[in-house]
Amino acid sequence: MPDWVARAFISRFDRILNTKADSWDEVFGRPHPKGQTAVKLHKRRSLRAQVFDRVQQLHEANPKRWPISDGTFEQVGEEFGIKKTQCNKLYYAEHRALDASGRTLPPTLQKAIMALDRKSPRKK
């Protein structure tokens, strides 16, 4: 553990130990966003990976029939009991997580995503 992390932890722990703070949340922040629970977040993260894997599986099996598009998101959404918009959001959230982690995607999927990225307007 880097020294700066250890010092920050000890400093915050010390505030609790010496009764200078009322709660763990006060010194370390909320563990989850308001209204969220660990169970909800875990379920969403798990569903995110499952949706991504299923879209990828269909696309790799038959890219012409299952392009990365609304039709595929609608099909996968039906399989998981969610709407295509939610399926789309989960898929791209997992895609961003994969990109951030440095893991690589299969070449066919990389090409499809790059094509989509070129077509879609950027949000500012």
Q: Would you write up a description of this structure?
A:
The protein is mainly α and 124 residues long. The chain has 2 domains: 1-30, no CATH class; 40-124. It has helices at residues 3-17, 24-28, 38-61, 70-80, 84-101, 107-119. The radius of gyration is 20 Å and the shape is elongated. The mean pLDDT is 83.
Mean pLDDT: 83
| Share of residues in helices | 55-70%
Q: Number of helix segments?
A: 6
Distance between the termini: 36 Å
Computed Rg: 20 Å
H and E order: HHHHHH
Major sheet size, sense and barrel closure:
none
Shape: elongated
- Strand segment count: 0
Ranges where pLDDT stays below 50 over 5 or more residues in a row are none
Secondary structure class reads: mainly alpha
| Proportion of beta-strand residues | under 5%
User: What is the count of structural domains?
Assistant: 2
